[in-house]
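Lecture 7, part 2: worked example. A protein chain together with 2'-O-acetyl adenosine-5-diphosphoribose.
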Amino acid sequence: MVPVRNIVILTGAGVSAESGIDTFRSAGGLWERHRPEDVATPEAFARDPDLVLAFYDMRRAAIQEKQPNAAHEALARLDAAWPGELLIVTQNIDDLHERAGARRMLHMHGEHLNAWCRACDRRSRWLGPLLDRPPCPQCGAAALRPDVVWFGEMPYRMDEIQAALRRCDLFVSIGTSGAVYPAAGFVRDARDLGARTLELNLEPSQGSAWFHESRLGPATEVVPAWVDEMLGQ
Ligand code: OAD
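Predicted complex, written out as structure tokens:
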């Protein structure tokens, strides 16, 4: 087997599940209680902005009470110690990877703790509610929306992600169902370009057959064990 130098890690809601943040598609998950077309599309926001803003205000408040778990901490440890290229691409809009100390990472579906001004197109760190239409700290317009990617919108930083996928020799998917594209297609892109592919998940994902290897179990167990292996500990 070719020695691993460059790694791309894709994470999803399963990595934050044991921190107490609901996943989307598990039994009792977020999309069972709220229809995505009511709260997570540009059309929903145009139709009923109060409903959408209240939904994200609730989630923004909730995630600030959660703490990173052993999986986030293990990935931050790998990021700090890995001598080759490494990129954590998260679909999560929580900030638990950063709070655990990860640095080489990006949020392809946006960030809960950012607000995006539709008037001046700038982003601001935002911890409070948006429902009461606060002014943009940069231009003063009452035009802030959550800085999250909704269905029908383009995920962020795709060029960087594709470039990293082209260079990686190991692609690892952690805690994601493989239901949402383009992230669900990364395993095929990486594999077609010659990378080894590994899945760490509670159960086989929808794209499980594309992975060379699957390790099933809770993220707080399987991720630290894999990181120890990578770091030779
Ligand atoms: P999902 O809810 O679709 O999938 C979560 C995955 O994590 C499932 O495969 C679970 O089996 C697994 N899982 C649950 N608990 C776990 C644990 N403790 N350890 C390991 N794995 C566990 O969430 P995502 O795949 O992240 O997008 O969803 C992808 C996108 O769909 C989200 O970013 C969001 C959503 O709609 C947007 O809102 C644009």
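The chain has two domains: 1-21+68-109+155-233, 22-65+112-148. The chain has a mean pLDDT of 96. Keep this in mind for problem set question 3.
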